[in-house]
Target: Riboflavin biosynthesis protein RibD
Amino acid sequence: MSDTNGRKVIANLCISLDGRYHGPGGPADFGTFIPYAASDTARDHMARMIEHATTAVLGRVNAEGFLGFWPSVAGSEEADPRDRAYAEWLVNVDKVVLSTTLTEAPWERTVIANAPTAEVVAGLKATGSGDILANTSPTVIKALLEADLVDRLYLVVIPEIVGGGERLFEDGLPATTWALTEQHTGKLGEMALIYDRARSPEPASGRRPPDGGPTRCPAATPRSAR
Model:
């Protein structure tokens, strides 16, 4: 999808060497990830991530967890300055929470959207300015990857094989190409990586590629967002 107005869709997640974002015990089994997610490298990564982000897109569960915790950090003098900056950003940024059960937002500057993830984010991308951030909301990020809507991918890869749990990159995603634009390695061996989606320019209307093939490959049909 062409980026017609400069808005980028960015996504961030911490994953293990075997591509998982939680352990075999279920979604709450993320103790292995915590030391790496709280490292200086990860905190600097987070600061870069929110620098140009003006909209946050969250799933309901993620929103309840984040907005139940981070506002208290914003006013804590003991918190790391980078954590306070993220907390203040989250409180003040425009938020879209994707939910089929919530009818009104219990948080300030928040809109509830009961619609497919890709549809909501495509609408946001077509209007306004600034980056659109999906931060550690796996179901949201997966739906955006399925629809090929992610323009920049922030990953913290930890030096652990957790051996079970859900993976970010599942079978059935459309084949896409990414360019590594920034990387940092932390003291614990974690890697903070930034990948930009390498999109080929679409051929002009009515023109065919030099190899005589079809003007456009059939688009992969995204699976329904979970």
